[in-house]
Amino acid sequence: MGDGDFLMGVNAFWTASHMELPLMVVVANNRSYFNDEAHQERVAVIRDRPPQNKWVGQRLDQPPVDIIALAVAQGFEGNEPITDADQLLAEMERGEKVVKAGGRYIIDARRTGYEG
Ligand SMILES: Cc1ncc(C[n+]2csc(CCOP(=O)(O)OP(=O)(O)O)c2C)c(N)n1
Ligand SMILES: [Mg+2]
Protein backbone atom coordinates (compact mmCIF):
# COMPACT_ATOMS: atom_id res chain seq x y z
CA MET A 1 0.00 0.00 0.00
CA GLY A 2 1.02 3.62 -0.39
CA ASP A 3 2.38 5.71 2.48
CA GLY A 4 -0.62 8.01 2.14
CA ASP A 5 -3.02 5.07 2.26
CA PHE A 6 -1.18 3.86 5.36
CA LEU A 7 -1.66 7.21 7.09
CA MET A 8 -5.30 7.52 6.06
CA GLY A 9 -6.14 4.03 7.36
CA VAL A 10 -3.64 3.54 10.18
CA ASN A 11 -6.38 2.64 12.65
CA ALA A 12 -6.94 -0.59 10.68
CA PHE A 13 -3.54 -1.75 11.94
CA TRP A 14 -4.92 -1.72 15.46
CA THR A 15 -7.88 -3.75 14.23
CA ALA A 16 -5.54 -6.36 12.73
CA SER A 17 -3.80 -6.68 16.09
CA HIS A 18 -7.07 -6.76 18.02
CA MET A 19 -8.32 -9.56 15.75
CA GLU A 20 -4.93 -11.32 15.94
CA LEU A 21 -4.72 -11.46 12.14
CA PRO A 22 -1.48 -12.75 10.62
CA LEU A 23 -0.53 -9.93 8.24
CA MET A 24 2.50 -8.52 6.43
CA VAL A 25 2.22 -5.07 4.85
CA VAL A 26 4.75 -3.51 2.46
CA VAL A 27 4.40 0.28 2.30
CA ALA A 28 5.53 1.75 -1.04
CA ASN A 29 6.80 4.91 0.57
CA ASN A 30 7.44 7.79 -1.84
CA ARG A 31 6.91 10.27 1.00
CA SER A 32 3.98 11.89 -0.71
CA TYR A 33 0.26 11.68 -1.43
CA PHE A 34 1.71 11.52 -4.90
CA ASN A 35 -1.33 11.01 -7.09
CA ASP A 36 -2.62 14.27 -5.63
CA GLU A 37 0.63 15.97 -6.69
CA ALA A 38 -0.12 14.75 -10.21
CA HIS A 39 -3.65 16.10 -9.90
CA GLN A 40 -2.52 19.49 -8.58
CA GLU A 41 0.01 19.75 -11.41
CA ARG A 42 -2.68 19.09 -13.98
CA VAL A 43 -5.08 21.61 -12.47
CA ALA A 44 -2.29 24.21 -12.16
CA VAL A 45 -1.53 23.92 -15.89
CA ILE A 46 -5.23 24.26 -16.77
CA ARG A 47 -5.58 27.34 -14.51
CA ASP A 48 -2.27 28.92 -15.53
CA ARG A 49 -0.76 28.63 -12.07
CA PRO A 50 2.83 27.52 -11.21
CA PRO A 51 2.93 23.70 -11.47
CA GLN A 52 6.13 23.59 -9.37
CA ASN A 53 3.87 24.14 -6.34
CA LYS A 54 2.26 20.73 -6.90
CA TRP A 55 3.94 19.28 -3.79
CA VAL A 56 2.32 21.76 -1.37
CA GLY A 57 0.04 19.94 1.08
CA GLN A 58 0.96 16.55 -0.40
CA ARG A 59 4.66 15.93 0.28
CA LEU A 60 5.29 13.94 3.49
CA ASP A 61 8.97 14.62 4.08
CA GLN A 62 11.45 16.66 6.16
CA PRO A 63 11.15 14.72 8.34
CA PRO A 64 9.85 11.55 6.72
CA VAL A 65 7.00 9.94 8.65
CA ASP A 66 8.15 7.08 10.89
CA ILE A 67 5.79 4.49 9.41
CA ILE A 68 7.32 1.59 11.32
CA ALA A 69 6.94 3.35 14.68
CA LEU A 70 3.26 3.99 13.95
CA ALA A 71 2.65 0.31 13.14
CA VAL A 72 4.73 -0.99 16.05
CA ALA A 73 2.66 1.24 18.35
CA GLN A 74 -0.37 -0.80 17.28
CA GLY A 75 1.01 -4.29 17.71
CA PHE A 76 3.13 -4.86 14.60
CA GLU A 77 6.74 -5.91 14.44
CA GLY A 78 9.15 -4.10 12.16
CA ASN A 79 12.80 -3.36 11.56
CA GLU A 80 14.32 -0.35 9.77
CA PRO A 81 13.20 1.39 6.55
CA ILE A 82 14.72 -0.17 3.43
CA THR A 83 15.88 1.44 0.20
CA ASP A 84 16.78 -1.35 -2.24
CA ALA A 85 15.44 -4.65 -3.58
CA ASP A 86 17.97 -6.89 -1.82
CA GLN A 87 16.87 -5.49 1.51
CA LEU A 88 13.24 -6.04 0.53
CA LEU A 89 13.77 -9.78 0.06
CA ALA A 90 15.50 -10.09 3.45
CA GLU A 91 12.72 -8.11 5.12
CA MET A 92 10.01 -10.23 3.52
CA GLU A 93 11.72 -13.39 4.76
CA ARG A 94 11.82 -11.89 8.25
CA GLY A 95 8.15 -10.98 7.97
CA GLU A 96 7.24 -14.44 6.72
CA LYS A 97 8.52 -15.95 9.97
CA VAL A 98 6.47 -13.48 12.02
CA VAL A 99 3.32 -14.10 9.99
CA LYS A 100 3.72 -17.89 10.11
CA ALA A 101 3.83 -17.56 13.91
CA GLY A 102 0.51 -15.63 13.73
CA GLY A 103 1.97 -12.12 14.07
CA ARG A 104 1.97 -8.89 12.05
CA TYR A 105 4.89 -7.29 10.23
CA ILE A 106 5.42 -3.89 8.61
CA ILE A 107 7.96 -3.04 5.90
CA ASP A 108 8.73 0.60 5.07
CA ALA A 109 10.08 0.43 1.49
CA ARG A 110 11.36 3.92 0.77
CA ARG A 111 11.66 5.01 -2.81
CA THR A 112 14.22 7.55 -3.78
CA GLY A 113 12.01 9.78 -5.94
CA TYR A 114 8.47 11.12 -5.93
CA GLU A 115 7.43 9.42 -9.12
CA GLY A 116 4.40 7.69 -7.57
C1 LIG B 1 -9.76 8.65 3.74
C2 LIG B 1 -9.32 9.24 2.41
N1 LIG B 1 -8.89 10.50 2.34
C3 LIG B 1 -8.47 11.02 1.16
C4 LIG B 1 -8.50 10.26 0.03
C5 LIG B 1 -8.06 10.85 -1.32
N2 LIG B 1 -6.85 10.20 -1.80
C6 LIG B 1 -6.89 9.22 -2.74
S1 LIG B 1 -5.36 8.66 -3.12
C7 LIG B 1 -4.62 9.77 -2.06
C8 LIG B 1 -3.14 9.82 -1.92
C9 LIG B 1 -2.57 8.45 -1.74
O1 LIG B 1 -1.18 8.53 -1.47
P1 LIG B 1 -0.32 7.23 -1.43
O2 LIG B 1 -1.09 6.13 -0.80
O3 LIG B 1 0.99 7.58 -0.80
O4 LIG B 1 -0.14 6.84 -2.97
P2 LIG B 1 0.89 7.41 -4.07
O5 LIG B 1 0.05 8.15 -5.05
O6 LIG B 1 1.92 8.28 -3.39
O7 LIG B 1 1.52 6.18 -4.67
C10 LIG B 1 -5.59 10.54 -1.42
C11 LIG B 1 -5.29 11.63 -0.43
C12 LIG B 1 -8.96 8.94 0.15
N3 LIG B 1 -9.00 8.08 -0.88
N4 LIG B 1 -9.37 8.44 1.35
MG1 LIG C 1 2.79 7.94 -1.55
End-to-end Cα distance: 12 Å
The number of E-state strands comes to 3
Domains (count): 1
Helix content: 40-55%
Bound molecules: thiamine diphosphate, magnesium ion
Mean pLDDT: 94
The CATH superfamily appears as Thiamin diphosphate (ThDP)-binding fold, Pyr/PP domains
CATH architecture: 3-Layer(aba) Sandwich
Q: Largest sheet, if any? A: 3 strands, parallel
CATH class assignment: Alpha Beta
CA gyration radius, whole angstroms: 16 Å
Inertia-based shape: elongated
Query: Order of strands across the biggest sheet?
Result: 1-3-2
CATH topology: Rossmann fold
Question: Which spans have pLDDT < 50 for at least 5 consecutive residues?
Answer: none
Number of helices: 5
> Which structural class best describes the helix and strand composition?
alpha/beta
The proportion of residues in beta strands is 5-15%
Secondary-structure element string = HHEHHEHE
Task: Describe the model.
The chain has helices at residues 3-8, 11-18, 34-46, 67-72, 85-100; strands at residues 23-29, 77-78, 104-110. The chain has a 3-stranded parallel sheet. It is elongated. It has 116 residues and is of the alpha/beta class. The chain has 5 helices and 3 strands; from the N terminus they run H-H-E-H-H-E-H-E. The termini are close together. The mean pLDDT is 94. Helix 5 links the parallel strand 2 (77-78) and strand 3 (104-110). The protein has one domain: Rossmann fold (3-Layer(aba) Sandwich), CATH 3.40.50. Bound molecules: thiamine diphosphate and magnesium ion. Magnesium ion is lined by residues 2-4, 30, 32-34.
